[in-house]
Write a structure and sequence with these properties.
- The chain is mainly α.
- The chain has one domain: ABC transporter involved in vitamin B12 uptake, BtuC.
- Helix content is 76%, strand content 0%.
- It has helices at 2-10, 12-30, 35-48, 50-75, 83-100, 106-135, 139-159, 193-210, 212-222, 224-229, 234-261, 272-282, 290-311, 315-333, 337-350, 354-369.
- Helix 1 runs antiparallel to helix 15 (337-350), helix 4 (50-75) crosses helix 13 (290-311) and helix 8 (193-210) packs across helix 9 (212-222).
Amino acid sequence: MGIVLDVAFRLRTIIAVLLALLLGAFLMLSVGADPVAAYGALFGESFFDYFGISNTLVKMSPILLAGLAVAIPLRAGVYNIGGEGQIYLGGLFATIVALNVPDLPSSIGIPIVMATAVLGGAFWAAIPAVMRAYYGINEVIVTLLMNFIGIQIVSYAVSGPMLAKSAPYPYSEEISENLHLVHIMPRTDAHLGVVFAVVLALVFWLFFKRTTAGLAIDMVGRSPAAARYAGVAVPRQILLAMILGGGMAGLAGGLEVIGHKYRLFHMFSNGYGYDGIVAAFIALGSALWLPVVALFLAGLKAGAGIMERSAGIERSVVDAIQGIVVLMVAASLSIRPGILSFFALQKATQTPTQTEKRNVGATLSAKEGN
C-alpha cells in the first residue's frame, strides 16, 4: 500500500491531467457531444497526422520558450507574468534588425536577429526586475501591466513607422528570405525554432543542476536569508534570473517573426506568453519537463480547430479543458507525502500483515507455556 501511495504521489501531476481530461469528457457530454470522437480528432490530428504534427511543433516553440521565461525566474522566487509583452518586444527588436540587414548571409544574419530578439525581451524584463530586486516593488503587478504596454508599442510601430506600403492590415514589410529559418518538415511551417527551444530547455536544466551561477539563483529562491548569509548577492541573482527569462520570451517573439510569419503583425502572438505560465506551472518549474508539457499544450491548441469542425465542439471547450488541467494540477500540489503516509499508516494499523499475526501468535504461545 505504501509503495502504491508513493508512486501516486510522484505521478500526481500526470494523474491530475488525466482527471482533467476525464472532467473535460463530462463537459462535452453535457453539451451533447461525443468525447471519444472529440478527443480522437483532437489528439489524432495533433500528434498522428503529418501536417497536424507540424502545426503542433510550430506552436510548441513559443510555448516552451515562454514557459522558460516563467520557470527561470521562479528558481529565484520571483514571478514573471510578463512573457507576452516580452514576446512582443523581442519580435519588434528582431524585425527592426532584420529589415535593416537584408543582405547578410543566413549564417551571420539569423544569429544576429535571434540575439537581438533575446536582448529585446531581456530589456523589457529588466525594468520590473530592477524594481523588484532593488526597490521591493511587486513584480507580478509590474510585469502584468507591462504586457499591455509592450503590445501597444508594437501596434503603434506596425500601424505607423513600420507599416508596409499598401498594407490592408497593420504589419511591417516582409523580411528578407535569407533570414528565414529552415523548415524541418518539408511542405509545412515547422521550423528550426522548436529545436532551439528544446536545446535551450536542456541547457537551462543543466545550468541549474551543474553550475555555480544556477545554484546561486536556486539558493535565493529557496531561502533568501540563507543566501545572504552565504554571501550571495540576492538582488543580483533576481535581476539575472528575470533577464534570462525575459530573453527566452524575446527569443520566442523573434522566432515567430523569422520562422513563421516573416513580418511583424499587430497582435502576432496567440497568447503564448500566458500559455507559458500554464506550461511552467504544470511542469512544476522544471526545465526538463517543460518540453513535454509544451508539446501537450501545443497539441491542444493545434487540434482545437479540427475538434470544432469534426465533432462540432467550440474552441472555448478546449480553453475550458486547459483551465481544468490547471485547477487539477493546483489541487494535486496541495497533496503532501505526510498525508499519504497517514493513510498508509491507518491502513497498516487496521490490517495487520501475516508476519505480524505470526509474531503475535508466537508471543501468546510463549506466555501460555510459561
